[in-house]
UniProtKB/TrEMBL annotation:
Binding site for Zn(2+): C213, C295, C296
PANTHER family in UniProt: BETAINE--HOMOCYSTEINE S-METHYLTRANSFERASE 1, HCY-BINDING DOMAIN-CONTAINING PROTEIN
Domain Hcy-binding: start-end pairs: 7-310
UniProt keyword terms in alphabetical order: Metal-binding, Methyltransferase, Transferase, Zinc
GO biological process terms held by the UniProt record: methionine biosynthetic process; methylation
Xref: InterPro entries: BHMT (IPR051524), BHMT-like (IPR017226), HCY_dom (IPR003726), HCY_dom_sf (IPR036589)
Protein name: Homocysteine S-methyltransferase family protein
Cofactor: binding comment: Binds 1 zinc ion per subunit.
Cofactor requirement: Zn(2+)
Top-level taxon of origin: Bacteria
GO MF annotations, alphabetized: betaine-homocysteine S-methyltransferase activity; zinc ion binding
Amino acid sequence: MQRATSKGILERLRDNGVVLGGEGYVFELERRGYIKAGPYVPEVVLDFPEAVKELHREYLRAGCEVMVALTYYAHREKLKDVGRENDLELMNRQAVRLANEVAREGDALVAGNICNTWAYDPQNVSESSKVVRGMYEEQLGWAVEEGIDFVIAETNDYLGEALIGLEVIKQLGLPAMVTLATVQPDKTRDGYDYVEACKILADHGADIVGLNCDRGPATMLPLIEKIRATVPGYVAAQPVPYKTHEGALTFESLQLENGARAFPLGLEPFLHNRFEMADFARRARALGINYIGICCGGSPHYVRAMAEALGRTPAASKYSPAMDLHPMLGAQVEEKDKVFLGDWKD
Ligand SMILES: [Zn+2]
């Protein structure tokens, strides 16, 4: 069931230049007290559906064009961990319904979502591929029945697993966005250079390829630039909003001052501010990236800043900063402070 009211993802990419996405639902709903850190299973979809709808709505108001159904980790393998495998179908269907309900409040697309399963085994490709394929087929079968416009297969650690997701999406006749996780310095867990892996995915029919999660803008941009130079089709970049750097390429490797691992619950000292994420959006567009978004750690204020940086005025811009009206700062803003006070637009 495709919705006729909205241009599809490929038409938007062709006609509008950049599509603005936005994710990080799992991290944000964990911060809000609705998802358990550790298993990170989206039980919230069934337990507090209004919380999921509210976050979708905040992203929509912030200018996000795609409501991504919260089926991340809502697959058989993960639901077993929390004893909810009997809720599998309901959780998946409900997640797509919630995304649809909010998408209709605006003019957003609905993306089905599949991800790394932790079931793929490069030592036993033929057997594990069957398991992975079965998981994707059941998840996306329900999603298609509930109504999606395209599918985002994301956080893929293995090219092999990503290709299975792509095949299932294409069998359903839907546009496919397939993005890789980048936990390792330069290769997927099954040994493909990230740039080469994106090229292979595009050659196999992925409509949009690229990267999501793990890296902040500073360490994702150089890599996505190489991918852009190699892949002729659409490219996506959805970094985490954390200050990764040469010495810590991913947010998993960031360390607190006492040497402790900051991931996943102590990452706040490394958060970028909204202006820096807006800057990322501008840089990504300048590089020719077509689908620009944000991953774990993302929240609506970043998306609004990114939307405005791309020249848009989403609903939430009604409440964008007007620092000249600030009782203390208004008259005294110095030129050097302006970038931090909302007067930073091009
Ligand atoms: Zn992420």
